Amino acid sequence: MANTAQARKRARQAAKRRLHNMSLRSELRTAIKKVRKAIQAGDKAAAEAQFRQCVSTVDRIADKGIVHKNTVARYKSRLAHAIKAMA
């Protein structure tokens, strides 16, 4: 355990940040799952609407540094390709 006041404070801050980052990462995963669910349902209009919301969410989370921008770009690319492949 931390021995100095500074180290104790840093441990508190790290725990608080970890919880916040976990909630944002969960929000990212949920947004992606909603798009995948719409794609599985076969509803292209709903999938596109969910995709637009998802892009906004994942970009905001990437800007905060929770996940890397290239990771988000890969997610968006794969989802867009899956929506485009729907006939």
What can you see in these coordinates?
With 87 residues, the chain is an all-alpha fold. The chain has helices at residues 5-41, 44-63, 69-85. The relative contact order is 0.12. The mean pLDDT is 96.
Going by CATH, the architecture would be Up-down Bundle
Distance between the termini: 58 Å
Average residue-wise pLDDT: 96
Question: What would you report as the Rg, rounded to the nearest angstrom?
Answer: 17 Å
Total DSSP E strands: 0
- Main β-sheet: number of strands, strand sense, barrel status? none
Number of helices: 3
Helix content: over 70%
**Number of domains as seen in the coordinates:** 1
SSE series: HHH
**What is the overall silhouette?**
elongated
Tell me the structural class.
mainly alpha
CATH superfamily: Ribosomal protein S20
The CATH topology comes to: Methane Monooxygenase Hydroxylase, Chain G, domain 1
CATH class: Mainly Alpha
Low-confidence residue ranges: none
Pfam families: Ribosomal_S20p
Keywords: Ribonucleoprotein, Ribosomal protein, RNA-binding, rRNA-binding
InterPro entries: Ribosomal_bS20, Ribosomal_bS20_sf
Family: Belongs to the bacterial ribosomal protein bS20 family.
Short description:
With 87 residues, the protein is mainly alpha-helical.
Note the main attributes of this structure.
single chain, elongated, 3 helices, Methane Monooxygenase Hydroxylase, Chain G, domain 1, mainly alpha, 0% strand, 87 residues
